[in-house]
Amino acid sequence: MTKLGSSDLDVARLCLGGNVFGWTADEDASFAVLDAYLAAGGNFVDTADVYSAWADGHSGGESETIIGRWLRARGNRDRVIVATKVGMLEVGGLDNLRADTIAAAAENSLRRLGVDHIDLYYAHQDDLGTPQEETLAAFDVLVRAGKVRHVAASNFTAERLTSALAVAEREGLPKYVALQQHYNLVERSYEGGLAEAVAAAGLSSAPYWSLARGFLTGKYRPGVTVDSVRAKGASKYLDERGLRVLGVLDEVAAAHGTTVAATALAWLAAQPTVAAPIASARTTGQLADLLPALDLELAADEIARLTAASEG
Q1: What is the pLDDT of residues 242-288, one digit of tens each?
Q2: Is the pLDDT of residue 234 over 90?
Q3: Measuring CA to CA, which residue among 171, 182, 173 is closest to residue 151?
Q4: Residue 15 counted as domain residue
Q5: Are residues 44 and 83 in contact, defined by beta-carbon separation less than 8 angstroms?
Q6: Which of 138, 184, 248, 271 is deepest in the core (most CB within 10 A)?
Q7: Which sign, positive or negative, has the C-alpha torsion 213, 63, 16, 122?
Q8: Which residues are catalytic, by number?
Q9: 252 domain residue, yes or no
């Protein structure tokens, strides 16, 4: 377990992404994945009110609803750190960070999850049209009411994250304790100003798309066809650099007797500021490839080899 930023949340090194629940994983499959993750020692589940509004016939909240049913069915709320998000759900006009949106969205999420509090509540994306004072004051109302334990940011620039932290300090409002951003072995734009801002503030990061939409599982290879809704996004990494990364991942994974996916996640977990990479699984078979990342530690030279392979 590792402490998430300045919060009191002790989280597993692998956060289970809930974006597939109610989308490409039905309720039974989702329950099985959640059961297996918890049994392996995981405790950190990430979702959002917008999951999975993009699917035909969906309006958002499907993932939260399934997680809520699972929590009630298993009676394990006290063993799970639940993170969800607000600010991207176009249905109902909840795609902003206004005070009324946050208040309404939080109640909807609490109801769907069937819980009396959210452990970590993210601003899912920045909202340049709403003063940060208004957004943070709305989060403050939730924290003071005991409905939210901690707040965090997702998809913020370094400038806007630093600004929000300064507003919170000045106004005595809740500070973001973590950042969720796109980051993995083949997408490293987080390194630099954004990572420096996170480190300077004592925050932690929980990267999404940690496996590059599945590319870093190793199943995407030249001449191989993968049946997945993410195949197009993952296949774009099949270039000289991507193949070089896969080659080193194969070698390091073999040395540890583990999976390529777990090795890629372990590299990410070893990066400065990273507390818990997020990865999702539609089946327990897919999850099994991820679970070694909960305690896999790479040697310094292995981390350096992977880093070098992904540069250029």
Answers
A1: 999 999 999 999 999 999 999 999 999 999 999 999 999 999 999 99
A2: no
A3: 173
A4: yes
A5: yes
A6: 184
A7: positive
A8: 51
A9: no
